[in-house]
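Re: [ENG-882] Designed sequences occasionally contain unexpected residues at chain ends

Forwarding the minimal case from QA. C-alpha cells:
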C-alpha cells in the first residue's frame, strides 16, 4: 500500500505483484474540506483510511509512505507532517510494516533517475501498472509510485 500524505488530499494505492507483473488493486484520493476544523480533517483522513482498508478485503504486507523533505513554507509543511503522523498511527494500529522512501528514491525506482519530473513519474506508474490513463489527481499517482517503490525496497521485485 502506498500513501502520498497531505492535509487537503491523501493519495492512496494498493499494488500487488504477480510474478514479474504489477497490478493496481485499488487507488484513489481522500479529500478533506478546507472549511472543516483542522482536527476534524485529521479524523476524516484516519476514518477514510479505515474504510478503505475494510473495503479492500485484503491485508497489505506494508505501507510505503514518502519521506517528507523540508519545504520553504513551514506552515504548510507542519500541516502535512501532522497528517502524515495520523497516517503513521493508522498503519501502526493495523500492524503494517512501514517503508519510507525519499522522493528522489521513488523517482529513481520508477524512472531510473532521481531528478525525474512529476509527469515522468506519472507516465511510469501508468506503464508499470498497465493503466489506460494516468491516475488522477497527482496525489494518487504519487501514492501508487510509493507502493511500487515499496515493493522494490521490500525485495519483492527482483
Amino acid at each position: 500500500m502506498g500513501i502520498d500524505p497531505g492535509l487537503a488530499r491523501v493519495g492512496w494505492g494498493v499494488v500487488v505483484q504477480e510474478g514479474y507483473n504489477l497490478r493496481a488493486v485499488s487507488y484513489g484520493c481522500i479529500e478533506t474540506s478546507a472549511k472543516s476544523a483542522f482536527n476534524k480533517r485529521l479524523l476524516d483522513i484516519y476514518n477514510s483510511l479505515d474504510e478503505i482498508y475494510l473495503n479492500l478485503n485484503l491485508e497489505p504486507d506494508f505501507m510505503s509512505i514518502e519521506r517528507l523533505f523540508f519545504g520553504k513554507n513551514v506552515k504548510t509543511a507542519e500541516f502535512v507532517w501532522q497528517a502524515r503522523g495520523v497516517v503513521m498511527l493508522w498503519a501502526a494500529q493495523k500492524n503494517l510494516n512501514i517503508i519510507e522512501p525519499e522522493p528522489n528514491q521513488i523517482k529513481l525506482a520508477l524512472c531510473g533517475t532521481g531528478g525525474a519530473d512529476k509527469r515522468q513519474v506519472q507516465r511510469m506508474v501508468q506503464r508499470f501498472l498497465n493503466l489506460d490513463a494516468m491516475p488522477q489527481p497527482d496525489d494518487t499517482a504519487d501514492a501508487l509510485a510509493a507502493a511500487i517503490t515499496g515493493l522494490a525496497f521490500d525485495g519483492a521485485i527482483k
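QA comment: On inspection the terminal residues look reasonable. The chain has a mean pLDDT of 91. Proposing we downgrade this to a documentation issue.
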